[in-house]
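Exercise 7.
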Amino acid sequence: MKNEFDFIAIEGVIGVGKTSLAKLLTERNNARLVLEQFEENPFLPKFYKDRERYAFPTQMSFLASRFQQQQEMLSKDLFQQMTISDYIFEKDRIFARLNLEDDELALYDTIFKIMAGISAQPDLVIYLQSNVDRLMQNIKERDRDYERDISRSYLKELSDAYNHFFHHYNKSPLMIINTSEIDFVSNEKHLDYIEEQIFNQPIRGNTHIHITD
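Solution. The predicted structure, written as tokens, is:
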């Protein structure tokens, strides 16, 4: 029996392919696409050069942008048609806990808790995992100017933080896909399998997807 979702969110560490998968699934299912507007954050390039100095303004800029998107999604009643996004609102706090000082995090949390209570909640979250070597390779290949200063150690920290977050995540059904050895962009069979698991298999609680040729 085919699953019906109003809102699917795809998550994962920088470079894991969440935007690529969101776009591919959107095209295949005639869905609405909502993408994180990270390129509009004026502090992001500065953050990758000086993490300590620019962490707070970078985080607050992302929080404001993501919340505005959430409100637009709800006010425009996008869910009359299936919506696929490349992030969940709660992910913002993963970065906050990793990058902010205690006093900054306390102020951030005060604002975040208000916003999180009135943000859109996905019917399914797809968490893409990958090893750090593959993440570094993907980031190098796409060669975005502001990502050239991302360090391996920061990616490792971020990957560990994501794994911890989703190990405890229970707000919606969760599908976990390890992408270290697959290529759903170039290999249509891999994409077909992922789509089959999303839309034609029962999803309850946490589901782990493993793909082999």
